[in-house]
Amino acid sequence: MSSTPPEQAAPTLSQEAGHSVLTLPEHILEVLSDSGEGAQKCGQSFGAVSAKMGNGAWTVEIIPAEIQPPPRTPDGASGVRIRIGTQKITNWGNRTKLAIAFNDQVLLSRHRLNALADDAIILLDQAPENHDNPQVRQEWIEALEELSSRNYRLIKVPLEEECLKIVDNPRQGKNMFALGMLSWVYLRDLERVKEQIAHQFRHKAKAVYERNVRLLEAGVSWAEQNLDFRFDIPTTTPDEDMVVMNGNTALGLGAMAAGLEMCSMYPITPATSVSHFLSESFDRLGGMVHQAEDEIAAIGVALGASFAGKVAFTVTSGPGLALKTEFIGLAVMTETPLVIVDVQRGGPSTGLPTKVEQSDLLAAVFGQPGDCPKVVLAPSTIEECFHCMITARRIAETFRCVVMVMSDANLATGQQPFKRPTLDPRWQSVQPDLSEVPVGTEPLQWDPETGLSPRLIPGQPGGMFTATGLAHNEGSHIRSDPENNQRTMELRSRKLAVLQSTLKPPVVVGPEHADLLVVGWGSTRGAIEEAIEKGQQEGLSVAALNLTFLSPLQPGLGEIFENYKKVMTVEINYSDELDQPYINAENRRRGQLAWLLRATTLVDVDCWTRVFGQPLCPGDILDVIRGKLAAGGQS
Amino acid sequence: MPSDPLPSAIQSALAPHFDAFRSAVAGTSEQIRSSLAELDSDVGSRLAREEAGLGGFADGCIDVERFAALATGQSKLTAGAKPTLEAAQKVLMEINQAGAELNQLRFDGGDLLQEVHAALASVGRAFGAARVAELARTGSFRKKEHGGLLKAYPYPQWNARERRLAPPLVIHCSGKDLHAGALSLFLDGDAKLVLVVDGVCPPALLARLISPGIFVVQGDESAPLEAMLAWKGPGIAALVHDQAARFVHDPEGGASIAERLRLDFLPEAPKPRALGGLSAGQQLEDLQHLTALAGSAAAPAPASIPANGAASAPATPVDKLAAFLLARAHLDQE
Amino acid sequence: MSENCGTLMGCGVEDERSFSMDDYSGPLARWCPGCGDHAVLAGVQRLLAKEQLKPERTVFVSGIGCSSRFPHYVDTYGFHGIHGRALPIATGIKLARPDLDVFAVMGDGDCCSIGAGHWIHAIRYNINMTVLLLDNNIYGLTKKQTSPTTPQGFASNTQPRGSFLPALDPIQTTLGVTNASFVAQTADWVPSHLAQTLEAAHAHPGFAFVRILQRCPVFTPTIFEEAAMNTDLTELLEHENGVTDEALKGVYPHTLYHDPTDIQEARRLAESSSKVRLGVFYADPGHARYEELRAVPKRTAEEKIALLNAEIDRYAV
After folding, report:
1. Considering only alpha carbons, which residue of chain C is nearest residue A325?
2. Tell me: the pLDDT tens digits for C226-239?
3. Do A185 and A230 meet the contact criterion of CB atoms below 8 Å apart?
4. Which of A32, B191, B195, C49 could make an SS bond with A106 (beta carbons 3.0 to 4.6 A apart)?
5. Do A6-232 and A243-427 come out as alike in CATH topology?
6. Cis peptide bond upstream of A270, omega within 30
């Protein structure tokens, strides 16, 4: 499925009894609520059903920082954006066209963030308008006043009132009623929606399922009687089997498919849900999730297990990665294979725990004292979250090295349909071979060319050695002489060059020669590629490049960059802007990939980065591209 | 042949042992898989293997040929090993598939000794397959000499480690068919046997097997199976109907029989009939044997047992039974 | 059950090797002359030979410090880790491979200071391993800094007017942790007691914690001097389920018959006393063991793929 620019196709309008059906190539909607009212469940169900019906889909969760923020506050807004389309969808798009809000305050949050299209349809629960509390009534008036600055089509919905007819506590009913409304508006297959609800409540009593179905049906019939619009986003039947899941689930499944046998972790947002998923099923496959006492122990246990012949990985996020630093050094020094997944969040320090950022790149590549070469990969789609685990494990074992997998909060919680992976028994791990080691075999028998060496596993007679983080020789015997230290550093470093020699140059999306090349990594890929596609349609001379290998970088970057007048990165991390006080070209701190590319290619790579704690919008990137090209260089 | 479901307490005591064995079988099968993969000597299939092994993320990113050149170590195996390894793997996969069923024997009469032999020889194919695989890997497999290991690997040929690793064998049988003494042969060799006895059986079924190094348990579903299964030497348990004796002989209990044997229940009145090839007299002898052992185990010395049945009411079940036996002794002479 | 490492390979071969103490000796230990670590090393090698542990199935794990050089001097597998982190590494090894015999060797800074968090949790995990705390009451490798077990008032390079706080007692601490299963104390200057304590610890199915009072002739020569010279200052805890050292009968005048299954009494005995108490404070093999609770049977690739496909079905479009 190639992503043709959805908004180019002309919408068609048809009339049915009492309402119009507008056929569109894509649409963006949001469900917004106080925390605990289940907007995410509603939205994710809607996204999954849409994907299962054959729509392209991408969901992004809007997560408040607190577990139970106070109700009716803009900061406490919890919800989900769903972008669906006839074709494949690769990012969350620009602005929302339809929002269901369970109260006025959570809606304000999205309004203030400029997340809603000027002509958005808003379905708003009218309960606060006549609330017992005068303060709530006052807030409602003020909110509507603030919202009136835009051209929204605001429709009041008796959401709470209708739910109270079925349940005592509307907080536990509004999301299903809303799902019913959305199902009617978007012509969703109700049977599939009910299947989804059944799956969601599979651990609960049947009565719970039935109550939710009643709410769903009430939502459908209310919408049918009261709304005059419907949107048809035609579905296509995919020609291959598809699955839909979020990135953390994909990572977990990928880990199991890759034959990894132990996930040793410590809870940290937004990485933890990988272990939630694994905890349910890993042991049935002979694997284990070990929840360690802290981040340091989590990697220590993984390292110990790996030393003993089991293939282990750990999963963490920024603050946890910081704590693991010393152990990463030990893994590199002892050449013990290890896979580390970093689901990046906003930093530094505790930062924005629930929100997306790409700020750990340099920490991943360089973040240990001493020279600490390791491999860094970045999946750019949810499908790649699955597949990269297989590659990561293979590289870690072949090169006896640490492989870092850089995901982020956007991939972690977003859902996207992708081709169902065909599992291969060759991905599965095998038992360590404990046969006797030939006399004279050293534990680090480096190939002088490549630095690679076969691994000895405890249990192999004749192979006894002591792994050590101290400088050592082939025998893992402690050595501090200058020649040995220089040589062993070379050998460990060379492994990256050797891996790079097996990599192919990355493939540019768009023209081979152009005025501008936009380079990105990780989850921004969809938004960047959509932006350059639109730019090309506008006649802009622009191409895009996504890098999946960050250490070592794929070869040939310098040559590729020569074909473009300007090269810039687009990233979700912090960089100074030249128009800020004190900032000039010399002292400017740049986006992390930009640093890396400038250092390796000596090309003057520019950057545009934002740390809004949310995914980038293709429209904003397109504006940047326009600006960059207008600023000169366009021939 | 499907067997009756085991009582849940018994099932949960056995499960870890079955699982550990099945786990080792699965592990061995996986090791053979990797040996077989190493044997793909032609470049095409090696590349295909490497490409598959790297996964979809590497598509278009990694030059498989170059990667394969780094990754592939020199295989120590010769191509001739392939059919042998495959045959060994097939056996292990069959055993793995059979799961706990393989460790259960339903005995419907006939020659118990022979059937237990056959059942263990079948379990033993797992060890045979591992041996064969190893011989194949080191190039010392000779079909004539070793080929039979995959068909049956009789218990007497197992070495000490194999005996320790073997899972317990559960024998479902009818009490009337059972002559447990026949099983002593296996207990000499470290086996673990669990008899699930249906119906009436000789009351002191396992009494003859009590000897210093053997863990013997006779009792109901709450019998301490775990302890027997955890014991490092041979052990046998019988789950019997509630009219049979219940006792535990734990070799670790101490040096004297008094410390090792715990008698929980002695039946009141065994019916005088032949069971399991044992005449009523033999059954009584067994019971007498158990009583005697238990008598020396119980605090009172044998001398304290009244010499005739008319003595004052006995204080313990042991005394009671002893009195009863002595009283009846003259009636049951055959 | 833990004898195989998930395979039957190799069990067809009877292992007829036998090992002497020399077979476990690595390169010459480079501790200072007179260092108590030498005695511990000899004791451990004696244990290995006595139990005939297979060198390839034995792993010594350490952190950083003088005592953490230990794995280099034993000819088994070893992992000389990073400061304070011996226990997570040992935990990982044992979770992955219950068939391996794992020893963790730590110093007092390693275990009780930088690694204290892991120490507490490793006690609670109660994974079957032998854990040796070589306690010389000082940081030796970095040259005389105060450690948590340095006696109050003892001067060091970081607290030259004497250690400010009362010393942390590792026995008391260990006994206070939920699920502690074996706690013993011995000393480098009583080799036969050391040997017996190591044997008891190794035989214990669980996390067997042994604090070894260890003399540092360079930085803390005075701390254990009196205790080592004057047998009147020692009290031996004896029990048939603990340690009973016949060789010491008549040498040490004070012995106490202590049942190591009595945790309350063990805790009372661990409280500070005018005597140094050597022996098994607590031992109960009945505690939950994490690696046993977490053991999962292995699956063949086909089985895994079938299970995974069923898992993926849940997400099928």
Report:
1. C82
2. 999 999 999 999 99
3. yes
4. A32
5. no
6. yes
